[in-house]
Amino acid sequence: MVVMKFGGTSVESAEAIERVAKIVASRGTRSPVVVVSAMAKVTDQLVTMGQQAASGNCEVALESLEALRQRHHLTAGELLGKKRAATLAPKLESRFAELENFLRGLAAVRELTPRGSDFLLSFGELLSSLIVADAFIVRGLKATWVDSRECLVTDGTHTRAVPQMSETRERCKKKIAPLISRKQIPLMGGFIAATAQGIPTTLGRGGSDYSAAILGAALDADSIEIWTDVEGMMTTDPRLCPAAKTIKQISFNEAAELAYFGAKVLHPATLLPAIHQNIPVYVLNSRNLKSTGTEITAQAPPSRDIFRAITAKTGISIVNVVASRGIMVHGFLRSVFEALDRHSTSVDIVAISEVSMSFTMETKRLPKALLTELEDIADVTPEDKQAIICLVGEDIHGKPGIAASVFNTVAESGVNIRMISQGASEINISFVVQESDVPRAVRHLHEHFFPVSGAKVRKIKSKKNGAAGITQTREAAGRGNERRPPVVRLKSAERKAAGAS
Ligand code: ADP
Ligand code: ASP
Ligand code: MG
């Protein structure tokens, strides 16, 4: 059995959905289970509509709702022909009526809670999956629409719910397995799930990939296919660097690291269920039916290049925490870590000395209350608009000179580095730069480490100032006699990957 997931751009229009039907038909003998995202941009539009309604601009939100309504009916009409579209229309209309009532309710109470947000965002996948299921049927595929909220069970952490695998497995065995035995193609919306009590939840933005992996694990699939708008996992984001190349094979560890550090092509938690059951994952291009894409498996052959890929994760804050004068140094770090724990915060990169600590976090996840609490024991300076650039490759372990080469290359691009991290047994080198420096640094690094065929990796130019003028974490001024903080790298396993979207 193969679980096939199609992202927003793969179902953005009638033409795109036609291609999806052809791709699924080509897997006919392999018992496909299909997961689809909302049509491209719909989830963003639902977010905006929710914000508008909750701030009292209900009429503006309802105008956007009307545009959404027309887009879905138009696509259904193009795909299904008049008769079948007329049968589907009432099903779509009842969803739109529910959505309209919800938006009016938001305008009345002027508040959008995380639980409300999950309910609101669920409409994107519900609508797209209903249309795609009918489009399949009209094209002779025996599709059966399945309500994902009845199969994927999660906890109640709204906006980034955590799957409950044993309950999910049981539900999938009951609701999906019988369809497969009857040679039906189960088709459902990704991203959305529900608690055991039936309250709608979502798996975090970009979570349809994760849905596919959860289903793959719950149904013991032979493989999981993530169909998207690029040729697979690439050596860097092709939007950032057009010279990016497709990676043919990559290991679970490397791909998970890339996803965690910003390769949007996969939701960061996607590989966890696949790793658990050793199910190969393929990333493929839905615009190219012959695509061979990227194969992600437990082990991958060594790559020709030093690194497998480069990623950048923007929207990062550096928080510098320096013990206030008069505070006992002993116990300072414990107090900081305890505060982080109390606020359930998961940090990416940490640099530590006896009296200071700097850490990075996604700005949107940085709780104000944490900063207030830390201010009781330390001088705290958060800095926004930062980014983590991460170079990943299993083959870098134990090879001298690689870090120097990375930092010299960044220095050559004229970009200043704010924090650095490379753990002893890790498979990546990551560092923090200003967000606005990302394109320059990534292109330069890509040109250096992924030279066009035939060209050799340039020799490292040694610079007088050692590691290319690297600024480690910016320490508080006036504490000149304290030691430079060594950098501590958190183990991947310590990250709450499930909540990392
Ligand atoms: P989908 O809607 O199919 O889920 P996404 O937009 O979530 O698609 O992910 C695909 C996008 O991820 C690509 O268009 C590309 O710009 C971006 N991306 C970022 N890093 C990478 C990478 N290393 N390899 C491939 N794509 C990447
Ligand atoms: N539609 C959701 C989003 O845009 C989930 C997904 O596309 O994977 O975040
Ligand atoms: Mg995606």
Overall description:
This protein is of the alpha/beta class and 501 residues long. The protein contains 13 helices and 18 strands. It has an eight-stranded mixed sheet, sandwiched between helices. 47% of the residues are buried. The structure holds adenosine-5'-diphosphate, aspartic acid and magnesium ion. Aspartic acid binds at residues 7-8, 37-38, 43, 124, 190-191, 205-208.
Largest sheet: 8 strands, mixed
Helix content: 25-40%
Terminal Cα separation, in Å? 27 Å
Task: Kindly estimate the percentage of residues that lie in beta strands according to DSSP.
Answer: 15-25%
Tell me the strand order in the biggest sheet: 3-5-2-1-8-10-11-9
Find the structural class using helix and strand composition.
alpha/beta
Which ligands does the model contain, each kind named once?
adenosine-5'-diphosphate, aspartic acid, magnesium ion
Low-confidence stretches: 459-501
Total strands: the figure is 18
Mean pLDDT: 89
Anisotropy-based shape: globular
Number of helices in the DSSP assignment: 13
Radius of gyration: 24 Å
